[in-house]
Amino acid sequence: MYTRRSSSSSDRSSGPESSSPGQYSPSGYHMIKVYILQAKLDATAVAELYTLIKSCKDVPDGLRLQLCGNPSDADVILSNVHMRKRLERHLDWDIAKQKAIVTPDWLHDSVAQQRPLNCADYAALGELREETDKNCPDCDLPKCICSSESSKESLLDNGTMNLITSPHVSYNYAARYSCQRASPLVCPNQRLANELSVLRIHRDLEGKTVNALSYERAIAVSTGLRLAYPRVITQADLDTEVVHLPYLGEKIRSKVLLCFRGCYHYVNDALTKINEFIRFGRIEECNTIRSSARFLSLKAFASIHGVGSTTARHLYSIGLRTVEDMEQYYDVPIADDGVPLLPNNEPKYTPNGKRIPTNDTIPDLDIKAALVLRHEFAISISRSEVEEMHNLIMAELNDLKPGCASTIVGGYRRGKPESNDVDIVITHADLRGGGEKITGLRKRFVERLYNRGLVSHVARGAGFIAQDSFRWHSLENALTVFRLPAQVDARHLHRRLDLIIAAPEAYWSAVVGWTGSKMFERDLRLWAKTEKGLKFDSSAVTRRHDSKRFFPQSENDVFSLLGLQWIDPTLRNADI
DNA sequence: GGGCAT
DNA sequence: CGTA
DNA sequence: GCCC
Which of A6, A123, A162, A523 could be bridged to A132 by S-S, CB 3.0 to 4.6 A? Predict the structure, then answer.
């Protein structure tokens, strides 16, 4: 029942040949109104379905669902009733024929994949299968597959456009590595993950990095639970199932218990009590941490780009307590209104409109600059703005070197509705062999963007090259600060932009390496090492015993080289 | 007790 | 040490 | 903090 021609819209657009706008948008799904027909569903099941629907209310770019109180208003009706006679006791047959009537599995699986699945595969009544198919809302043959984008093959075309994540992966929620599991963006266990995240951040800020890693793993497992196990954890689950989940060991498990204390008192009777069900407990220690002044100071310090936990603890130890203290300490110029003075690096023009070339070096994104820019960096970037930035950047690049291909990676590619930064992987057939050609292009491109007033800063400390020991490198990146021109976006905000220039042979490794999430990447590398004797980094897969390098020719190639099943980018959200 | 991504 |  |  999972074998239809559906597509993850991500891949068809992730081909480097498609540097066109609005490449990957998992979204565009209409709000789907769902009615729960309670007959033959017990209170627990109804509560689960209710929670699932609620969790999909505010996801503008994923699956959007709305609980609906009246079957005739619904697009989809969830039902465990399989006989016409029985159904007619609850629902007018003429109305039933105008709806898609599916089993609750449709909801579970659709939430898991964050897209509305084909209703016919889940028809509750064989007799209404055709109607269910016909009335299926927004069935996931995406518009983009039928329209536009001629499928011209390029040497970089990956042939992975129609991959779907195997449902088998969705039921792998107890697997050891997050690269074996499916981790969607939203989940009913979000609250648990948020609580664990407080502990994770706290351990990190206090320098207990391995403890923090354990919490990251526990969070990653929790994020997968929403999938094959898409329900809020109950006491019974805790007793039977949670014991067998990896990375929820004795100490973390006891905290999970704390977090869910009380939630098994829910609904023995009706939907009306479901709001009680939603009220979770909290982890006691988190409350202590949240109200700790030291924690708040360290967290504020470390929120500045370039300041990690070590520097944060140092600043605290010499008496600093607030970011304003930091401004003084780092000598940030403050305007009369008390706001840090934004840098003025607009391009200069002669009276007749010609740009005066600037020969000055590009300002460094150091801690001082990051302090000045921190308010703008905190403003999240919408998907359409990400796409706008990508368009502009690729237009500039095309001027400098025609024929480049690119993919927006990072959180955007994982389907996040809002991003903190923008990551773009870029390649060109001429860059085969890497080395000087890549360095040259990166340098010229960043300088051009700077001279055009599109890039204001570059992070130098981190301008690292590909981490391989080869003489030549096949990957280079530029960590920059970008601004859309005021004519395009009046806010003219400073945005974090990472450009990754890859040789064509390194392209797909780079795309996988930069799509994330962080935990997903660590587990890819750990899996490659411990299970396969391979090394994965964002420039290649390398066999450890003889250093033979493999250059995947598609994103799926990376997965199969590593002996892993395909996981859609939108299901790689193993971090919170 | 060692390893935890590169 | 900080970053992706 | 957890796993081997």
Answer: A123
A11 CB contact with strand B at below 7 Å: no
Cα angle, residue A437 at apex, residues A435 and A442 outer, rounded to 5°: 105
Which segments of A400-449 are extended strands (E)?
Answer: 405-408, 418-419, 421-427
A467 touches strand B (CB under 7 A): yes
Instruction: Give the closest residue to A425 by CA, choosing from A470, A394, A380, A463.
Output: A394
- Under the phi-then-psi rule, with left for phi > 0, alpha for psi from -120 to 50, and beta for the rest, what region is A242? alpha
For the residues of A78-90, what is the DSSP string, one character each?
E-----HHHHHTT
Residue A152 has pLDDT above 50, yes or no: no
Total residue count of chain A as it appears in this document: 576
Higher pLDDT pick, A227 / A559: A559
- Residue A463 contacts strand C, CB under 7 A: no
Instruction: Judge contact between A511 and A555, C-beta under 8 A.
Output: yes
Cβ pair A240, A224 in contact under 8 A: no
A553 CA to B4 C1' distance (Å) = 30
Q: Judge whether A463 and A500 are in contact, CB under 8 Å.
A: no
CA(A248)–C1'(B3) in Å?
Answer: 18
Residue A529 makes CB contacts below 8 A (sequence gap 6+) with: A535, A544
Write out the DSSP string of A223-236: HHHHHHS-S---HH
pLDDT per position as a tens digit, A85-94: 877 877 788 7
Residue A267 reports pLDDT greater than 70: no
**What's the CA A545/C1' D3 distance, rounded, in angstroms?**
25
Whether CB of A60 is under 7 Å from strand C: the answer is no
**How many angstroms is C1' of D3 away from CA of A440?**
45
Q: Give, in Å, how far the C1' of C3 lies from the CA of A352.
A: 42
In this prediction the pTM is 0.74
Give the residue carrying structure tokens 């909801």: A107
* Closest residue by Cα to residue A297 from A205, A375, A197: A205
Which helix (H) or strand (E) segment holds residue A326: the answer is: helix A323-329
| Domains of chain A in sequence order | 30-137 (3.40.50.10190), 170-290 (1.10.150.110), 304-375 (no CATH), 378-571 (3.30.460.10)
- Segment of A223-232, A234-243, A565-574 carrying the highest mean pLDDT: A565-574
Instruction: Select, from the ranges A147-161, A165-179, A351-365, the one with the highest average predicted confidence (pLDDT).
Output: A165-179
Q: Which of A513, A412, A527, A515 is nearest to A466 (CA)?
A: A513
- Alpha carbon distance A352, A349 (integer Å): 8
What's the whole-number mean pLDDT along residues A366-394?
97
Q: CB of residue A124 closer than 7 A to nucleic acid strand C?
A: no
Distance CA A528, CA A510 (A): 16
When pLDDT is cut at 50, 70 and 90, the band that residue A66 belongs to is confident
Most confident among A265-279, A337-351, A376-390 (mean pLDDT): A376-390
- Mean pLDDT, rounded, of chain A: 81
With CA of A306 and C1' of each nucleotide, the nearest comes out as: C2
Q: How many CA atoms lie within 13 A of A329 on its CB side?
A: 17
- Spacing of A254 CA from D2 C1' in Å: 14
Per-residue pLDDT band at A59 (split at 50, 70, 90): low
Residue A511 neighbours by CB distance under 10 Å:
28
